Amino acid sequence: MIRVAIDGPAGVGKSSTSKALATYFGFAYLDTGAMYRAATWWCLNQGIDLDAEQPDADRIVDTVGRFFTEDHFDISVDPEHPDVTSDGESIGEAIRSREVSSHVSVVSSIMPVRNLLIAAQRAYIAREADGNSFSRGAGIVAEGRDTTTVVEPDAEVRILLTAREDVRQARRTGQSNTSQVGADNVAARDKADSKVTSFMSAAEGVTTVDNSDMDFSETLDVLIRMVEDAM
Ligand code: C5P
């Protein structure tokens, strides 16, 4: 059983690399950022003012709690068909909107929200690491901001995937099909996120992979070798 935890800033290519890595080994894939995005989407849908100078943290915690405990939320951990649903409807695209990207740090910086999501993430990892319906080998790749340090500090493989800021912003802009996603300001989001999670430098025991000068397949090769070494 192999748990792979990958953290890093926005726009580094974490999601695409993590999905490809999980697919390669037949592992499950958990996008923890998608869970924070879904929580934010739900809060906006419930009419919570996330632009307020002092957002109503109690209401946010209560609202997010209901979202997860009352079964409104589901996430597919199949790396070839990743999706997030709310009451059975796909919200995979909606959670990538500029509206969600620009408010997600407000929600993810509230500690009781984090504690709730971290517990849910650990449960997914525990369940999937021992085998999943599509696996050839038992394992999971979890990616986010605190998977190597908080969610799964005992993971067999812990990676900090990083790249220079100009490279990351360019990738984000180039990656987007819509001006909405392109307008996602990764520097501002990283700055806000850095106040609550530590992903700009590697914690002890975490291997840094700087892919500023690597293309997608070179990055994937490096990660594949790291997982093979841990097997
Ligand atoms: O990975 P992604 O860019 O989709 O993450 C969206 C947001 O979710 C981040 O900007 C951050 O606010 C939050 N997040 C987090 N902890 C994680 C993963 C994501 O706080 N483990």
From TrEMBL:
State one molecular function term (GO): ribosome binding
Keyword annotations for this protein, in alphabetical order, are: ATP-binding, Cytoplasm, GTP-binding, Kinase, Nucleotide-binding, Repeat, Ribosome biogenesis, Transferase
Keyword Nucleotide-binding among UniProt keywords = yes
Gene Ontology cellular component terms for the protein in this record: cytoplasm
GO BP of this protein:
pyrimidine nucleotide metabolic process; ribosome biogenesis
**Which compartment or compartments is the protein found in?**
Cytoplasm
Residues annotated as binding ATP = G8, P9, A10, G11, V12, G13, K14, S15, S16
State the source organism's domain of life. Answer: Bacteria
* Subunit text: Associates with the 50S ribosomal subunit.
- Described purpose of this protein according to its UniProt entry: GTPase that plays an essential role in the late steps of ribosome biogenesis.
Family as reported in the entry's similarity comment: Belongs to the cytidylate kinase family. Type 1 subfamily. Belongs to the TRAFAC class TrmE-Era-EngA-EngB-Septin-like GTPase superfamily. EngA (Der) GTPase family.
Name the record gives this protein? Multifunctional fusion protein
Q: Which organism encodes this protein?
A: Bifidobacterium catulorum
**Which gene codes for it?**
cmk
